Amino acid sequence: MAQNNLYYYLVLIIKGKNGAALSGSIIKDSPLWGGIIRRCICMAKCDFCGKEVSFGIKVSHSHRRSNRTWKPNVRRVKAIVNGTPKRVHACTRCLRSGKVTRAV
């Protein structure tokens, strides 16, 4: 296996006007790939209701405390936004309640 030819880089991309939402992408750069392939690792946040990761403390039976996260069930779906189909991140509650109109 030619692992010495394959390099992984983590590139952070800052988006947004006010809050500067942070997302990352992993870039595979290798002569074997013939170029650069980019895969986006997006934050678990709904584009419609704004539901995002929440933080808290996990408490065991012996009352030992450790930090934990609760992630929303976010799906990447093709929906109609302003009359045009677009890929968006939507939580399952917004999909079930009808806030998101799916593009077929």
CATH homologous superfamily assignment of the largest domain: Ribosomal protein L28/L24
Through-space gap between termini: 41 Å
The low-confidence parts are 1-33, 35-39
CATH class assignment of the largest domain:
Mainly Beta
The name of the CATH architecture of the largest domain is Roll
CATH topology of the largest domain: Ribosomal Protein L24e, Chain: T
* Major β-sheet profile: 3 strands, antiparallel
Helix content: under 10%
Radius of gyration: 19 Å
Number of helices: 1
Number of strands: 7
Shape: elongated
Please write the string of helix (H) and strand (E) elements.
EEEEEEEH
Main sheet strand line-up? 1-2-3
Q: What share of the residues does DSSP label as strand, in percent? A: over 45%
What is the total number of structural domains?
Answer: 2
Account of the protein in words:
It is a single chain. The protein has 104 residues and is mainly β. The protein has two domains: 1-42, no CATH class; 44-104, Ribosomal protein L28/L24 (Ribosomal Protein L24e, Chain: T, Roll), CATH 2.30.170. The chain is 6% helix and 52% strand. A three-stranded antiparallel beta sheet has the order 1-2-3, with no helix packed on it. It is elongated, with a radius of gyration of 19 Å. 7% of the residues are buried. Mean pLDDT is 74; it is low at 1-33 and 35-39.
Task: Record the SSE blueprint.
Elements: E1 7-15, E2 21-30, E3 35-41, E4 54-59, E5 65-70, E6 74-81, E7 84-91, H1 92-97
Antiparallel strand pairs: 1-2, 2-3, 4-5, 6-7
